[in-house]
Amino acid sequence: MTPGQLQDRSVGALPLRGTVADVMDAAGPQVWYDMTVEVALSVMAAARAEHLVVCDEDARCVGLVTQARLTAVRDSSRYTDRLRLGDITDDSEPFVSPSATREEAEDAVPFGRLGLVPVVDEHGSALGVLALSR
């Protein structure tokens, strides 16, 4: 599947027999987990992106940050100019396989969590993101 074939739909719109790969969005910009919050906000602005996929030194996805989260962190009292993305991402975030069904994708995410979920391959590389709205 090429990025041009990706469609913008939520998990609720997944076909009954389809997979996450059929409806995921492109992963978008990928950045390293040692990037500072301020630089990440600049990258996000330059790319006109609403999120960044955060990767470790082996290019494995460790999480995803949104503009809203980065802005909230920057505006918080615990913010310093040394704060890095690895300090604010939680590598225990749910990740979804591109071959997962709608039910499997919904079960992988804690109840009530909405938003974007990284779609990763068996090596942990980000392939895309899935928008959850349930």
TrEMBL record:
Highest taxon listed in the record's lineage: Bacteria
Keywords from the UniProt entry: CBS domain
CDD domains in the cross-refs: CBS_pair_SF
PROSITE patterns named in the record: CBS (PS51371)
Stored Pfam families: CBS
Coiled coil regions, renumbered to chain: none
Entry keyword annotation includes Repeat: no
Domain named CBS: residues: 24-80
PANTHER family for this protein: CBS DOMAIN-CONTAINING PROTEIN CBSX3, MITOCHONDRIAL, REGULATORY PROTEIN
Name this polypeptide is given: CBS domain-containing protein
Species this chain originates from: Streptomyces lividans TK24
